[in-house]
């Protein structure tokens, strides 16, 4: 671990300082950021070890980072162990748990999982280039595979349970304009008669879900445009929107469908 | 020299549906069967080469329309859903028998109706006393709204 010592040596005293701080110490946040940033290559290295198993590397890196944050928070130097022998299993454990908990809701062949990852990448490239959501034929052309494989892959994507990683990790919204766009959508909501029934139910949603619903139904934006603003994939927007509509429907029924 | 067919246009399983295809799905008017109907909707849209936004929009619109109709359907009645796959457009007509005359009508002053109006390019409510239907269509290109 001598190479690691030289690379991360300067962080060890910070780690000791961090673990000694009171929970409400104002220095905590800055120190934590510095530690997480400093140790980030470890998390990225572990994430890469799990790549090519059907989960996007970006997701894995996020989960590994979450594991790293846990490791930084829970590490206590006074117990005598060094940080690496504590952090590595903590981070790997988090990534393994991701595969177990957040992955596919049914057995999907490896080939289709790989196709799902390829499709996701192609969709994001093509959306950027075309300025709209691509068609299956365009995805197939981009990937150099038959349309039938793309159709199969899209179908398999329905079995992919979206992780709530984005919610766990970032509280800040994607782009600066999201707030403005939500404001405009909200003003539009003011103009509809059912706003009194809808507002309290919207208020129960997580911020990201509420943002997506407002932008889609009151902000006149497509899923692809929303995906770009909020900083998640079109397929993720699609899943969140469908889930949220389902939830809103069950919550709204008694108020709106009688009489 | 083997023939290369990168778009798979020659494969039966991957070909785009011929425009003018009619598909009818008939189920009990039960919420539990709506996932089956919306799966048909999204499969038809994907095979008709709709863009991903339009596929997802149509799927959710069919979900919403069917949920609305199941809600007012007479007990034990059927939900009938006809898909009309045309050039760059899919029309959907969903319909149920309602619980006798004077039954609770579907209101268009709801969030559910707003959802339908946003997701579909056009949507209409049809009611003739004994039956209530929702007719909508969706173009293949979600952007062009």
UniProtKB/TrEMBL annotation, chain A:
Residues 35-104, 119-167, 201-249 form the RNA polymerase sigma-70 region domain. It holds the Pfam family Sigma70_r4. Keywords: DNA-binding, Sigma factor, Transcription, Transcription regulation. It comes from the Bacteria. The keyword Lyase does not apply. SUPFAM superfamilies: Sigma2 domain of RNA polymerase sigma factors, Sigma3 and sigma4 domains of RNA polymerase sigma factors. This is SigB/SigF/SigG family RNA polymerase sigma factor. It comes from Pseudonocardia ailaonensis.
UniProtKB/TrEMBL annotation, chain B:
InterPro entries: HATPase_C_sf (IPR036890), HATPase_dom (IPR003594). Residues 28-132 form the Histidine kinase/HSP90-like ATPase domain. It comes from the Bacteria. This is Anti-sigma regulatory factor. It comes from Pseudonocardia ailaonensis. The lineage of its organism: Bacteria, Bacillati, Actinomycetota, Actinomycetes, Pseudonocardiales.
